[in-house]
Amino acid sequence: METLSGEDWYGRELGADDRFEKFAFVDCDLTEVTDTGATFDECVFRNVRFNASTHTDASFANCRFERCSLFDTRFVRCKLIGSSFDACDWNATHVEGGNWSFVDLSGSDLRGARFRGATMREAELGHADCAGSSLRDLDLSGAGWERADLTRCDLRGSDLTSLDPTSVELAGAIVTIEQAVVIAEGLRLDVRVE
Question: What is 90-194's CATH number?
Fold first, then answer.
């Protein structure tokens, strides 16, 4: 694995011709990067600052993000299949569409993050702190939720069929009527119209 250490890519523009496979980015600055279609395959990002960067139609497949700052980072229609995040700062991060299936977000502090319209099949959200965050219109089929904090989380439009309401904190979570029925069924209630 090739290592890039201390690289300063502040404000750099990346495009479809930029491809990185099995690179380790260590202590790099990607602040305000504009990325349109770059590919990162099986890369490691350690202590990387993505602050205020925008990634559109980019791919970060099977990557590892360790202690990265994603403050005010925007991911639009990006592919992060199989990637994992450890001790990252998600404050003001926006995810719009894309494929985040099999992503490992276990234990992540997602309180300041906004996810909308993404496919997140079998994503791991166990022990994640999602209090007050927004996880809207997501395909979360098969997702792992064990001990996640969903207090005041906006879950409207998301697939909650794999959610065990007895294993998470749901106080004040925002859901639709249809989702409330799914949660009630998860509690083994016999839901009837009359």
Answer: 2.160.20.80
